[in-house]
Amino acid sequence: MADDDKDMLVFLADELDPAAEQEETAAAVWRVLLVDDEPDVHTATKVALRNLDIEGRRLEFQHAYSDAEARKVLQQEAPFAVAVIDVVMESDTAGLDLVRYIREELADAQVRLILRTGQPGYAPEISTIQNYDINDYRTKSELTQSRLFTSLTMAVRSYSQLCQLEAGRVGLEQILDATRELSRPSGLQQFATGLLTQLCALLRIDCDGLLCAALHPATRQPYILAAAGQYSNWTGKLLEELPEGGIRSRLEQSLQAREHVLNGDIGLFFEGANGQALAAYVNIGRQLSELEQQLLEVFCNNMSTAFENLQLYLDIEALAFRDTLVDLPNRNALLQLLDQHSGEQHTLALVDLDNFADINNILDESFGDAVLQAVARQLCSAFSEQCMVSRLASNLFGVYGPDVEVNPDQIQSLFAQPFQVGDGQTLRLSATTGLARAEGRCGKDLLKNAGAALKQAKRLVRGKHLYFKLEQSRAARDRINMLQMLRTALSEQHLQLYYQPFICLRNRQVTGAECLLRWRTPDGQFISPEDFIPIAEQSGLMVAIGEWVLRTALRWRISLQDRVADDFRVAVNISQVQFAEPSFVERLLSILRETGVPRHQLELELTESVAIENFDRLKSKLQQIQAAGIDIAMDDFGTGYSSLSVLQRLDLNRLKIDRSFISGEKNHDSFDMAKTIIAMAEHLELQTIAEGIETEEQCAELLASGCEEGQGYLFARPMPEADFIVWLDAWPGA
Asked: What is the pTM of this model?
């Protein structure tokens, strides 16, 4: 008999050795499902494969004698490595139906399938293997013992590889899920707790023996950041306080060596930014497989990245909600608290340090920083934990809390005593405070109300306090409404210019005109410039309005070319805000080129408030304007900031004497001041023009004092364009 014949499976084999059949092993096994309607086939297969050992694991058989019975087994039993299936059983296609059920309905892509049949014609080999992911297809006559050994071995190894791949895939999915979960903004302790949870899921263990340690940010001593299960009461303890030395040493070893320790109980290391580190202890109770070690390595790398990202987020959050100079919550943090809690019996106080700019200017900014830190310390010590002390701006602090604590008496008492600044230095400070009661308002409204009270207090009672009143809110709303109306007026050309002539006091000739901005509403009402100009300046709208005024006045001057002398000048008022624009001179010259007006026909009127600006920058701009051939007048002289030394250093053409100094018949002291200004201007070789002339007596006295020009009701009131032309034609000196 040939060797192949000797190796032929005999399905009517001798009975199995009872001892062998009952043999059990504690080691892991490969589970094999035998599906065949012939009992002898089951017996013979077990006999043939009883000594087969694949990768150190024996085979364990489960038997089914029909398609229906096999389906029940598959539903109830643990996964199988291999299923050996007869094609023809209770029907010609029963085996193929079972294969379809396994692959499609159970969606089991891992179990390896071996088909065998005694009637090959019922199942074409190629189409069967292609359609149903079958590892092997044999006729029963082909399945010698050696071929069955080979088929089973290849199938089991294929199954093992698939399981490893699937475990790796699942593990990687868990790692990705963990990375996404732990990358979300959370506190460091939340991160550590989540880390332990994800470790349990990855290693398929209970969260009963896990700890996470970190270096304390203040002491740099290792402590338990998070713990689970039996160790949960250890959270917050230093490692040196732990009763279990093995756990302590394992965590210390990971933190000190800055690497994983995978022998025995596991110590994992996670590196963050700026030298920060976490270490996790896992009491796994078994040896890690090679795949688990690989997955752990990937997991730790990803968690280190998530840890670093968390630290970056916490740093950004600190910048967003904390003032680093004084280590207090900032405006964002205060608003967040106010939106979350606006108690009926709570008050917000805004505390503004008086004259703080002088401290920075006279001393230096480092000393100013020390002052702010001293104030912050004093405020924090004066209020309980029920209150939030915050820094909102340079020298502006906020205090929010119960009315019984946050009140003017409590705040002002802080400033009754000198502050300790730096190394033993003392400094007396004062503060102006605006307060607003919460009364259920949202954060922004409460902050706005306290701000309105502070603004009013700084204007009326500097160094003291004011509570917000509803009238202030109405006034604020009125200002907002006026600003909206002003924007509309500019865009829809509701603004207009009036003109008041300049008169030579000696011969009564018209020498020029000042253009004055007027706002007439659609209902015919005039809004005073004193009301809307400050709003325009504060909102930034004044720059656009100023350019409109300049362009409109110059076009008007062009229209007068045939009616007035060449030296007739149009004077345009320039606000401090407009003049302070870096591109002011460039824009001015551009508008002149655009309109075609000769430069000597334009005069700019600046108020004394421009002297507040950086002097070097101011002088440079004035020199550029003068170099371009444009005259400059100082408007309302004598009421503002100018001094003789300032005038000597500035390039000016004339001084405009404020109308308050002209009423000589009523106040001789005032008129004497006008004479002094005229004399000073003459000394500085500056021309003078007086405002507010209403009588011939005033005109005569100004002329006798040396004043060249004047304007006022004696000559003409401010007029629209058309009325100015009528007046000009009728003026005797024209």
From this structure: 0.45
